[in-house]
């Protein structure tokens, strides 16, 4: 049972490509691999623990202020992640800047709390939250890999494409400027959805 | 228990908010020293970077110590008084005994503050080096102002042209390679690029009197040019009062 909860969001129920949630940050932080990975880890931690905490207190939450309680818990976790990044990973926290704060508005988190954590025990909720974070992270890393490689010729900031290939150094190659612009991230997500639906036909709506 | 009663809801939300506030206050208290230290090291590293020092910080075993040692060896903090305004300045004495004047600059980018350090040679005209940084410009676009590729463009550029202060122009669509005061803007980051241009102009203008007062051999000034300078000439004395030690 727990295994299925974990594997489902990675492919068949992927939050980005199937549920189409969390697109906003997927466009914003995927120009480089490093911020994309830190963002993926941050979101995974927040989804996992917010689902866990909400599930722990799910029977005590007054129904009328349910959403507010969820937001307070999520916001607390996001601020904690932000503070810890600032103390222990200052460089990366600078690169992510506003997007860490914007994890609060990431639909995956509220989506999983509402759809899963409110009706399930804490441990499965933790797994569900973490797995959705991973599912989000996989897509982010794939997109960031393509965008950084073709857009900047680097991976993790290290030059991969030989410098003497470039037109300005007398070569034949030029970085694709479109890659670093947000629309390309959307196109890439579209391509991933296409590939995924070609593989598992049952995802296609009738 | 009925969780839908008004009293229950009020007590529940109060307790929740207090608990969350305590957790966050505690986290902030415990992490504050470390965060402030990070910011201090970051600032010092930026100052050093503008004069091409501290380039091995990434590989240094103890980055903080490496930066502090270099900083205390080369950089001297100072301020100059310009009327009512106190201007911050850092003076770097290189191994060659050449003095480099590092001026902090601050401005507003597209999403938040941008700032940086401009290092001028002792002719108060030629840029020796620049570091720029930002709070939250768009990654891959405006955020590129802090990359070495963008900052390197400023080296050797001149902020005066024929004795007139023009600052540095960040030109969209490509700078004229023969111009001494133009650099390329960032594709897709036009607003941030223009913000850099405005920031340099606004901040460097404040130091104009200081430049004039401390320039041993003034560049030939076209007389009519004075009208384009924004600082009135009679405040020059204020700058002379605080010569560089």
List the helices and strands and how they pair.
The complex is a heterodimer of chains A (206) and B (245).
Chain A: H1 2-7, H2 23-28, H3 33-56, H4 66-88, H5 90-96, H6 98-101, H7 107-115, H8 122-152, E1 154-155, E2 158-159, H9 182-199
Antiparallel strand pairs in A: 1-2
Chain B: H1 6-50, H2 63-74, E1 75-82, E2 85-93, E3 99-108, E4 113-120, E5 127-134, H3 148-152, E6 160-161, E7 164-165, E8 169-171, E9 182-184, H4 190-206, H5 208-214, H6 236-241
Parallel strand pairs in B: 8-9
Antiparallel strand pairs in B: 1-2, 2-3, 3-4, 4-5, 6-7
Helix pairs in contact in B: 1-2
Query: How many strand segments of chain B?
Result: 9
Total of helices of chain B? 6
- Amount of beta strand of chain B: 15-25%
Q: Radius of gyration of chain A, rounded?
A: 19 Å
Shape of chain B: elongated
What does the model show?
The complex is a heterodimer of chains A (206) and B (245). Chain A has one domain (2-199). Chain A has nine helices and two strands; from the N terminus they run ααααααααββα. Chain A has helices spanning 2-7, 23-28, 33-56, 66-88, 90-96, 98-101, 107-115, 122-152, 182-199; strands at 154-155, 158-159. The mean pLDDT of chain A is 85. With 245 residues, chain B is α+β, with helices and mostly antiparallel strands. Chain B has a domain at 75-241. Helix content of chain B is 38%, strand content 22%. Chain B is built from six helices and nine strands. Chain B has helices spanning 6-50, 63-74, 148-152, 190-206, 208-214, 236-241, and strands at 75-82, 85-93, 99-108, 113-120, 127-134, 160-161, 164-165, 169-171, 182-184. Chain B has a five-stranded antiparallel sheet. Chain B has a two-stranded antiparallel ribbon with strand order 6-7. Chain B has a two-stranded parallel sheet with strand order 8-9. In chain B, β2 and β3 (99-108) form a beta hairpin. In chain B, α1 (6-50) crosses α2. Chain B starts with 5 loop residues before the first helix and ends with a helix. The chains are: A mainly alpha (206), B alpha+beta (245). Chain A binds chain B through residues 28-29, 31-32, 35, 59-65, 68-69, 72-73, 76, 79-80, 83-84, 86-88, 90, 94-95, 97-98, 147, 151-152, 177, 180-181, and chain B through 3-4, 8-9, 12-13, 16-17, 20, 23-24, 27-28, 31, 34-35, 38-39, 42, 111-112, 133, 135-136, 138-141, 143, 187-188.
């Amino acid at each position: 049972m727990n295994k299925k909860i974990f594997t489902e969001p990675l492919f068949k129920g992927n939050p980005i490509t199937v549920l189409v949630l969390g697109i906003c940050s997927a466009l914003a932080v995927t120009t480089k691999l490093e911020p994309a990975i830190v963002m993926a880890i941050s979101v995974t931690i927040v989804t996992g623990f917010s689902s866990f905490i909400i599930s722990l207190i799910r029977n005590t939450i007054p129904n009328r202020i349910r959403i507010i309680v969820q937001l307070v818990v999520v916001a607390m976790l996001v601020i904690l992640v932000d503070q810890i990044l600032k103390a222990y990973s200052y460089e990366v926290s600078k690169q992510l800047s506003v997007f860490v704060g914007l994890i609060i508005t990431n639909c995956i988190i509220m989506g999983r709390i509402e759809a899963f954590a409110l009706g399930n025990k804490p441990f499965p909720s933790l797994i569900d939250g973490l797995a959705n974070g991973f599912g989000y992270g996989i897509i982010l890393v794939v997109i960031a890999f393509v965008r950084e490689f073709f857009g900047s010729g680097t991976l993790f900031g290290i030059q991969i494409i030989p410098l003497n290939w470039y037109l300005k150094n007398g070569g034949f190659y030029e970085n694709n400027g479109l890659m670093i612009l947000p629309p390309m991230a959307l196109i890439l997500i579209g391509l991933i959805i296409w590939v995924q639906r070609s593989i598992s036909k049952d995802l296609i709506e009738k | 228990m009925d969780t839908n009663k008004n009293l229950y809801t009020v007590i529940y939300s109060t307790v929740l908010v207090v608990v969350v506030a305590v957790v966050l206050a505690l986290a902030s208290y415990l992490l504050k020293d470390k965060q402030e230290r990070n910011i201090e090291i970051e600032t010092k590293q930026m100052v050093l970077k503008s004069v091409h020092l501290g380039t091995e910080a990434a590989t240094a075993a103890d980055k903080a110590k490496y930066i502090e040692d270099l900083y205390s060896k080369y950089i001297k903090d100072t301020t100059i008084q310009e009327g009512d305004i106190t201007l911050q300045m850092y003076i770097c004495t290189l191994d060659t005994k050449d003095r480099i004047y590092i001026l902090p600059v601050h401005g507003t980018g597209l999403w938040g503050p941008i700032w940086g350090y401009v290092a001028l040679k002792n002719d108060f005209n030629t840029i020796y080096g620049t570091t720029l940084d930002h709070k939250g410009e768009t990654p891959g676009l405006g955020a590129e102002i802090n990359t070495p590729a963008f900052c390197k463009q400023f080296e050797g550029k001149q902020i005066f042209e024929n004795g007139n202060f023009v600052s540095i122009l960040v030109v969209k669509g490509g700078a004229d390679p023969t111009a001494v005061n133009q650099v390329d803007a960032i594709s897709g980051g036009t607003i941030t690029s223009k913000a850099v241009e405005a920031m340099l102009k606004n901040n460097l203008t404040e130091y104009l009197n200081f430049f004039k007062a401390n320039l041993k051999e003034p560049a030939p000034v076209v007389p009519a040019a004075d009208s384009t300078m924004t600082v009135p000439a009679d405040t020059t004395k204020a700058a002379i009062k605080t010569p560089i030690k």
